[in-house]
Write a structure and sequence with these properties.
2 domains; two-stranded antiparallel ribbon
């Protein structure tokens, strides 16, 4: 298993890292970024980064990755081993962060010397990443926000109505008022919607995401369904 300490520790300690080693490290991390996109996101997500930042999007994300290393250098310099899984999580965090921010925060073509490891803009993230439980909550919230935006953007009005009907039924044990649709037609809509939901969320889902998915549904119900649709209490 590859140990990335030989590249990262000299950078964080501001020791001299040979240019050939830095280029090797950069190439390796850019390959890892592609791996994260393929393993943890749908193909459309990487296309969004390409569209927003052009062909240099991997260089932008590599610079952002270096910045995150500096922001958590006190933790990293105490690690005995830095494996790919650890760096995978950092990169995944960065991608979720920028998805949730609407692509406002990735800088263009910053030089290595210009990176500020303790910028005020990122101070809250630095603090959260120091504490394991807070770091988990932070990443989970980014996931939920990203998924919520995906649902809002990709579900049409009929999808939304159908989704809300079943969310009320499952989560609140209440029934939503339906207009101009019978239960049989609604069920057929739901069968089609399940496939659409799988296409939107499925490529990114793993077994450990089930808690996040439940919270996502609760957020969607609160932010969309309860604000838009009437419900009636079911009488026993």
């Amino acid at each position: 298993m590859k140990d990335y300490k030989r590249y990262i520790f000299p950078l964080l300690k501001k020791d001299k890292l040979p240019n050939s080693d830095f280029e090797e490290f950069k190439k390796s991390i850019k390959q890892l970024i592609r791996k994260v996109f393929c393993a943890a996101f749908s193909p459309q997500i990487e296309e969004m980064f390409k569209k927003a930042y052009g062909n240099g999007y991997l260089d932008d994300l590599f610079q952002e990755f270096l910045l995150r290393l500096f922001q958590t250098k006190d933790i990293i310099l105490n690690l005995k081993f830095i494996n790919e899984k650890y760096l995978f999580t950092i990169i995944q965090n960065i991608i979720y962060y920028h998805l949730s921010s609407g692509f406002r925060l990735i800088g263009k073509a910053k030089s290595f010397e210009e990176l500020n490891p303790y910028s005020e803009e990122e101070e809250n993230i630095k603090t959260e990443e120091r504490i394991a439980s807070q770091a988990y909550d932070y990443l989970k919230n980014l996931k939920i926000k990203h998924w919520f935006n995906e649902l809002k953007n990709k579900l049409n009005e009929k999808d939304e109505e159908t989704f809300c009907y079943y969310l009320f039924k499952w989560l609140l044990k209440k029934e939503m008022e339906l207009k101009k649709i019978n239960k049989n037609a609604l069920y057929k809509r739901w069968e089609r919607l399940k496939i659409k939901l799988q296409n939107i969320l499925g490529a990114q889902l793993e077994e450990e995401d089930l808690e996040e998915i439940k919270e996502l549904f609760e957020v969607y119900m609160s932010e969309v369904c309860q604000k838009k649709y009437f419900i009636k209490n079911k009488k026993g």
